[in-house]
Design brief:
heterotetramer; A: alpha/beta; Rossmann fold; 7-stranded mixed β-sheet; 14 strands; B: Rossmann fold; 2 domains; 5-stranded parallel β-sheet; two-stranded antiparallel sheet; 12 helices; binds thiamine diphosphate; binds magnesium ion
Chain lengths: 337, 410, 337, 410
C-alpha cells in the first residue's frame, strides 16, 4: 500500500493496466508528453512510448471516434476529455456509436472503451470548467457511468472500467483530486495522505462496477451522493447532528439499488445530493426509483439538494455549490416532515 | 455608413429542376487514359491535378487505356461484371419486396455498382471497411450469402442483427464489413481509428472509410481528416459523389471547393478523383491507395464521380426535385453496360452469355429470396423474439434491464 | 378555420411567421426546394425566396452554429433537424452556446432560435429514426422544450416558439403527423381532418408556452403524457375502464406544475408515460416533482410506462412502443396499490 | 499473409523539448516584401502560394517594403504602437493581480499583441468579431475602458457579465466583440452565421471569426468552412498560429497539411499566411480581406504566424514542455520592438518618447486598476449578488427558477 492522491491513483491505474495488457492505449489532449493538464497520465508516454500514450489534436469527436474504431479493432482505448464541459462535441459518437454498437450488430463488433473526464466545480472554473453532465449519459442505454470519490476507489474502478467489455464514462471530481473537500471552502483541503482512502495498493487491483459503499452508517435518513458531494453530506450530517446513512453510489449506472433500498426501507427518509443542475439531473432518477421501490416505507418527501438550474457562475460559485448548510436544511426538513 | 453597396446572399442551386431537359454538356469529362499514374510514394503536392481531373480507364469504345489500365485475368473481369449484375438484380428484387410489404425500407445502388464491387477487390482478408448504406457491393463482391442479407432486410429470425437494425444496415466482421450506422459520417473517424489501431499493433491490415458527397459536410469528416493527416494511419478515405444527397445537389456540400477530392489538399493527403462508373478505373485507384496504406505511406482520399440513378431510398421520389431523364443523360454511362461492352469487345463475353448470366443471377437471387422468406419477412411475424431485444445492450445484462425484461413479460 | 394535418399546421406556422416578420429565416437539410423530407417547409422557398428558406449542407452543428450567429445578429432562425436522432452533432452548440449565451454575457447578446425536429417511433424507423431525446434537453438550463400532440397546438406553439426571445427545442411526434395514433398499430390512422384538433386557424395565432392541457378530465388517477403518448393514454384509460385524468404537457420546460399538482392532489395517483428510454428520462423529473409537491396526497407509487432501456429496435418495434395494454396495466396497478 | 512489413505508428513530435537549445533555423522566413498583393477579386486558385509563404511588410531593419506596405498617417502608426504597449502593460498588471489573489485566472497575449490590435483597424463600427480568449487587443484598439475589462476580470459588482464568466471572457456588442465562449471553435460557425445574416438582411456589416492553431482541429472549424464555402458570406476567418496549444505543438493539429492557411484550399477560400508579429502586415492583410467581404466576394482565411511567448494561462508552466528560451529565439521577433524600431527610424518616435509612453500607459493602467479595485476584486467580496445568478437564464424567469431562487434564500 502507498499513499496516493486521486491523481496518482488514476495515473497508477493507467500504469498497471498498460503493463498488464498491451492492448490498453491512452490518449487525449495534452495527455502524452506533458501527462495531462491534471497530470493523470504523467510518465506514461516515457514508460510506454508514444505509440501507446500520445497527444491528440483538439477534437473530442475525433478522440472518441477513433477510439471506437480502435475498440472495434480489438484494442482497449482509455481516452481523456480535458474537462467534462468539453465532452459535448463527442456526444454523438458516444450516444449514437459507442453506446449502440454491440446491440445494433448483435455483438459482431463491440466497444470496450473508457472515456475519462474531470467533473464538478469548486475551483472557480466558471461555467466551462465546472459542469457535472452525468445525467446526459445515464439516459443513454449501453453506457456505464462511474464517479469515484477517493483515490482507492478511483484506482480500483478505473481498472475495472478499462477491463469492462463495454463503454464506460469515468467521471473524476476534480475538486477531490488533491484531498477530500467538505464544502467549507474557507478551510484548507486535507491532503489524501492524511486520509484512509488515500491508502492505495501500488500493484494491480480492481473494484467491481455497480456497487455502492456506505460511507457512514446511520438510522435516521438516507443520503444518496457521489463524488464531491459525499464529503459535503458527511459534513452536513455532522453539523446538523443527524444520524444519516450516507451512501456513496460510485457507479451511477448500473446502480446498486439493493443497497439503496435496504437503507431507505430502514430510515424511511431520503435526501439526494448532486452538483449538477436539478431539472432532469440524475437525482430525478434516484428519487423516482426510491419512491417506486420504497413507497410504503417513506415518511417524508424525498428531497434534492443540487446545483441550481443556471450555468455554474464564477463569482457566485459558493452560492451555487450545494453547501453543507443547504444539505443540513434538507435533512432537517426531512426529519421534521 | 458604408461606401459599399448592400450585401446579397448566395445560395447555390442546380441548373436543372423537374421539367428541364437534362444537359451535362457543361461537365468536363477528360479522355480515358489521360491522367498519369504517379508512384505510390509521390509527394502529394505533385499530384494536386489528380484531384481536379477524372481518372478513367475504359474509353468510350470500351478499350482500357493509359497508365491506370490494369491487366486483369479474364475470369476476374467476368467475375467483376457478374458482381455488378448480381447487385443490380438483388436491388431490383428487394425493391419489389419492399413494395410488396415484406419489409419497411430499402436503398438501392443503381448506377453506382462499380464502386464497391471493384474496390473490394483491392482489399485482403482481414482489412476492414466502414461502409455507408450504399456499399452492399463490398459484400456481393465477396460472395457473402445473399440469403443472409435478405434475412437482415426482412428482420427475420436469422437476421445476423437480430432484427434490431433498419433494413440494409448489414454487419459482418468476418467479411471486413463494419456494422453500418444510420448516422452519417460517424464511421469515418472510426475507420481512421481502426487503422491507427492496426499501426499501433504493428499489424498489416488496412481500413477503408466511406461517405457520400453530402456527408462530407458533417463535422466527423473533419475529425477523420485531421487524425489521418496527423498519424498517417493505413486508411483509404472514400467519397462517393453521386451528385445528390436526398434532394440536395452536390453544390451545397461542395461549395466553392471545385471537387470533393480537393478537400484532401488542405490536409496534405494524396487525393484522387476517379470515374466511379468505370470498374477498371476504380480497381486501379483502389489498388494504388491500398498499396500506399500497406507500405505505411498513410492515407489516401478518393472521390468517385458517379450518379445516383435511383431514388435516395424507398421513401424518396426524385422526380420532385430533378429532371426525370437526368440519369440517362449522365455522361459517364452505366457501369454494367460499359464493362459488358469491354468484355464483348475483348471477345470473352457476348450478348448471349450476358442474357444467360442475367437469367442465372435472377435464379440465384430468387433462390436466396425463397430461402430467406421461408424463415420469414418483416410482415410474416417470424421476427426475433422481443425477449432478445434486451440482449447485447451490455455484454452482461444489468439488474435494471433484467427487471424491465420481466416487466415486458419475458 | 381550416382542416390541417400536423404537417400542414407546421408549414402554416412557418408561413405566417415569415409573413409577419422579415427576420424569420428557415433552413435545414432538404428544407428549401424540396420543402423538407416530411414537407413541413413546403412552398416556403417558392414564396419567400432562397434567401429566407434554403437547403444546407448536411451538418447539424453547422446548422445550429450558424443559426446562433444569426440570432445574435438579430434574425429569428427556425431550423430543422431532419430527425431528432441526428441532433447530437449539434448538441455542443445547443448546450454550450445557445442555452448559455444570454446568461454568460448578462443579456448583451441573446439567442432567439427554434430548433425543430421530428421525434418518436412507430414508423419502423429503427434506432436512428425513432428516438425521443427530450431529457437531454430538459436537463440543460436556458432551453425551453416543447412537444405538441396535434395540429392546433403545433401551429400555435410553433408561432410562440418563433416569437420567444430564447432558444426553443421543438419536437414533433412524427407518428402523429398525419393523424392521431392510439398505439393500436393494426388499426388504420384516423386522419386529422376527422378530428377536432385538426381544426386550425389559417391566419396567425399563438399559444403560450408553459401551459399543459387536460385532454380528459378524470378522478381516479392522473396520467402525465405528451406527444403520441397522449393518445395511447386515452386508449388505455378507455380500455381499462379507469376514470383517468389525462394531462397533455405540451411544454416540458417550463413545466405547468400547477395543472399537474391540482390533478394529482385530486386523484392521489399518477402514471407517467413517455416513449423515450426510462432511466433518466423526463418521466424521472416528473415523478420526482410530483412526489416533492404532492407527497401527502399520494396513495400509490408513481409509475412510469416508457420505452425500454434498449435502442429502439426495428422488428420488435411494437414490443418497445409503450402500448395501451402496458399503460392499462400500470393504471390497474396504481388503482390496486 | 501479407507481403508487406508490419505497419508502424506515426506521432509527430516537436524537435525540441526542455533542456534543448532553441533553434528555428529550419523555419523558412521569406524576405519582407517578397509576397505579391493580388487584387481582392482574384481567383483563389491563383494565390495558392500565398498560403505557403509569409506575407511580411516590416523588413529586418524596420522598413516597410513590397506590395502589402500600406501608407498610414503618423498618428495612426503611433496609436498602433501605443495599443500594443497598452495591451502588454495591461497583461502584466493583471498577471500580477492574479498572483496576488485578486482573481482566479488570467490569460496573456505576450508576443501576439500585433494581431488583434492591427486587425481591429480594418473593421468599421458595426462589424462583429467572434474572438477567442486571446484577442483582447480588439477591445484595446478601440479604447474600450480598461476599467470595465478589469471589473470583468475581478468579477465585481460592475462586471458587465455580472460575475458569471471566467476572467477575460469579455463581451461587448457595442464594440463589436461577441461574448467569448470557453469552448474552443464554437464561435467560428457563429461568425459565419452572423455574416450570413448580414447578407440575408442586405446589410453592409461584416464578421470575423477567430481560432487558435490547436482549435482548427475541432469539428466546428469544418462546419464554419463548409458554410462559408457554400454561401460565401462576408466573413474573415482568422487562425492565430502561435505554435502551441497548451503543451501541444502545432504539428499535432497541422499534421501533414503544410500550413494552417492551406486548409482553406479544399474549400476554394482565398487563404493568406501573414507575419503575425508585423503590425503593418496584419493590417494590410486584414484590410484586403475586409474589402473582399464588403464587396460581397465572400470569405477569406488568414493564418497569423506568431509565437505564444508566455504560458497558456496562469494555470500553465511551459517550461515543462518546451525550451525556456524558445520565445526569445523566435525568428519573427517582438511585435512591439519591431514597430518601435520602424517609428524611430521614420523619425516620429524615439527612445525617450517610448520610455515616456511606457510610463504614461503604466499610469493609465494603474488608474483603471485602482478604479476597478475600488469596486471590488474576486477576493474582496463585492461580487454581484447571488440573487442575480438566477437572472438571464431566460428573458423571463420561469416558475421553477423563481422557486429555486427562493430556496436559495433570495
Ligand atoms: C447525422 C445525420 N444527418 C442526417 C441524416 C439524414 N440523411 C440520411 S441520408 C442523407 C443524404 C446523404 O447524402 P450522401 O452523403 O450524398 O449519400 P448518398 O445517399 O447520396 O449515397 C441524409 C441527409 C442522417 N442519416 N444522419
Ligand atoms: C472544446 C474544448 N476542448 C478543450 C478545451 C481546453 N483548452 C483550452 S485552451 C486549449 C488550447 C487551445 O490552443 P490554440 O487553439 O492553439 O489557442 P491558443 O491557446 O494557443 O491561443 C485547450 C485544449 C476547450 N477550452 N474547449
Ligand atoms: Mg450523394
Ligand atoms: Mg495556439
Amino acid at each position: 500500500m502507498a499513499k496516493m492522491t486521486m491523481i496518482e491513483a488514476i495515473q497508477s491505474a493507467h500504469d498497471t493496466a498498460m503493463e498488464r495488457d498491451e492492448r490498453v492505449v491512452v490518449y487525449g489532449e495534452d495527455v502524452g508528453f506533458f501527462g495531462g493538464v491534471f497530470r493523470c497520465t504523467a510518465g506514461l508516454q516515457e514508460k510506454y512510448g508514444p505509440t501507446r500514450c500520445f497527444d491528440t489534436p483538439i477534437s473530442e469527436s475525433g478522440i472518441v471516434g477513433t477510439a471506437i474504431g480502435m475498440a472495434a479493432y480489438g484494442l482497449k482505448p482509455c481516452v481523456e476529455i480535458q474537462f467534462s464541459d468539453y465532452v459535448y462535441p463527442a456526444y454523438d459518437q458516444i450516444v449514437s456509436e459507442a453506446a449502440r454498437l454491440r446491440h445494433r450488430c448483435a455483438g459482431d463488433f463491440t466497444c470496450p472503451l473508457v472515456i475519462r473526464m474531470p467533473v464538478g466545480g469548486g475551483i472557480f472554473g466558471g461555467q466551462t470548467h465546472s459542469q457535472s453532465p452525468e445525467a446526459v449519459f445515464t439516459h443513454v442505454c449501453g453506457l456505464k457511468t462511474v464517479m469515484p470519490s477517493n483515490p482507492y476507489d478511483a484506482k480500483g474502478l478505473l481498472a475495472a472500467a478499462i477491463e469492462d467489455p463495454d463503454p464506460v464514462i469515468f467521471m473524476e471530481p476534480k475538486r477531490l483530486y488533491n484531498g477530500p473537500f467538505d464544502g467549507h471552502h474557507e478551510n484548507p483541503v486535507v491532503p489524501w495522505r492524511d486520509h484512509d482512502l488515500g491508502e492505495v495498493p501500488e500493484g494491480y487491483f480492481s473494484l467491481p462496477l455497480g456497487r455502492a459503499e456506505i460511507r457512514r452508517p446511520g438510522e435516521q435518513v438516507t443520503i444518496l451522493a457521489y463524488g464531491t458531494m459525499v464529503y459535503v453530506a458527511q459534513a452536513a450530517a455532522e453539523e446538523a447532528g443527524i444520524d444519516a446513512e450516507i451512501i456513496d453510489l460510485r457507479t451511477l449506472l448500473p446502480l446498486d439499488m439493493e443497497t439503496i433500498k435496504a437503507s431507505v426501507v430502514k430510515t424511511g427518509r431520503c435526501v439526494i445530493v448532486h452538483e449538477a443542475t436539478r431539472t432532469s439531473g440524475f437525482g430525478a432518477e434516484l428519487a423516482t426509483l426510491v419512491q417506486e421501490e420504497c413507497f410504503y416505507s417513506l415518511e417524508a418527501p424525498i428531497q434534492r439538494v443540487t446545483g441550481w438550474d443556471t450555468p455554474y457562475p464564477h463569482a457566485q460559485e459558493w452560492d451555487y455549490f450545494p453547501s453543507p448548510a443547504r444539505v443540513g436544511r434538507a435533512l432537517q426538513q426531512s426529519m421534521e416532515a | 455608413m458604408s461606401e459599399f453597396p448592400p450585401l446579397t446572399f448566395n445560395v447555390p442551386a442546380p441548373e436543372l429542376r423537374p421539367g428541364d431537359t437534362p444537359d451535362f454538356s457543361g461537365v468536363e469529362i477528360p479522355r480515358a487514359g489521360s491522367a498519369r499514374r504517379p508512384p505510390v510514394d509521390v509527394d502529394p503536392k505533385e499530384i494536386r491535378d489528380l484531384a481536379f481531373t477524372i481518372i478513367r480507364v475504359l474509353s468510350r469504345d470500351g478499350e482500357p487505356t493509359g497508365d491506370w489500365a490494369v491487366e486483369l485475368p479474364d475470369d476476374e473481369l467476368v467475375e467483376g461484371l457478374r458482381h455488378m449484375m448480381r447487385l443490380r438484380a438483388f436491388d431490383a428484387r428487394m425493391l419489389m419486396a419492399q413494395r410488396q410489404g415484406k419489409t419497411s425500407f430499402y436503398m438501392q445502388h443503381l448506377g453506382e455498382e462499380a464502386i464497391a464491387c471493384a474496390f473490394q477487390k483491392a482489399l485482403y482478408k482481414g482489412d476492414m471497411n466502414f461502409p455507408t448504406y450504399r456499399q452492399a457491393g463490398l459484400l456481393i463482391a465477396q460472395d457473402y450469402p445473399m440469403k443472409l442479407m435478405m434475412c437482415q432486410i426482412y428482420s427475420n429470425a436469422e437476421d445476423p442483427n437480430h432484427g434490431r437494425q433498419l433494413p440494409i444496415m448489414y454487419s459482418s466482421k468476418e467479411y471486413g464489413f463494419f456494422s453500418i450506422s444510420g448516422n452519417l459520417s460517424t464511421q469515418y473517424p472510426q475507420a481512421v481509428g481502426w487503422a491507427m489501431a492496426s499501426a499501433i499493433s504493428n499489424d498489416t491490415r488496412i481500413a477503408a472509410g466511406w461517405v457520400g458527397d453530402g456527408s462530407t459536410a458533417e463535422s466527423d469528416y473533419h475529425a477523420a481528416m485531421v487524425f489521418a493527416s496527423t498519424y498517417k494511419p493505413p486508411v483509404i478515405l472514400n467519397v462517393v459523389n453521386n451528385q445528390w444527397a436526398i434532394s440536395t445537389f452536390q453544390g451545397i456540400a461542395k461549395g466553392e471547393s471545385g471537387t470533393f477530392a480537393a478537400r484532401g489538399h488542405g490536409f496534405g493527403i494524396p487525393s484522387l478523383r476517379v470515374d466511379g462508373n468505370d470498374y477498371l478505373a476504380v480497381l486501379a485507384v483502389a489498388r494504388w491507395a491500398a498499396e500506399r496504406a500497406r507500405r505505411n505511406l498513410g492515407p489516401t482520399l478518393i472521390e468517385y464521380v458517379t450518379y445516383r440513378a435511383g431514388g435516395h431510398s424507398t421513401s424518396d421520389d426524385p422526380s420532385a426535385y430533378r429532371p426525370k431523364e437526368e440519369g440517362d443523360a449522365w455522361p459517364l454511362g452505366d457501369p454494367i453496360l460499359r464493362m459488358k461492352g469491354y468484355l464483348i469487345r475483348k471477345g470473352i463475353w457476348s450478348e448471349e452469355r450476358h442474357t444467360q448470366a442475367e437469367a442465372e443471377i435472377a435464379d440465384e437471387v430468387l433462390a436466396a429470396q425463397k430461402e430467406a422468406e421461408a424463415i420469414g419477412t418483416l410482415s410474416s411475424g417470424n421476427a426475433p423474439s422481443a425477449r432478445d431485444m434486451f440482449e447485447d445492450v451490455f455484454e452482461e445484462m444489468p439488474p435494471h434491464l433484467i427487471k424491465q425484461r420481466q416487466e415486458a413479460g419475458y
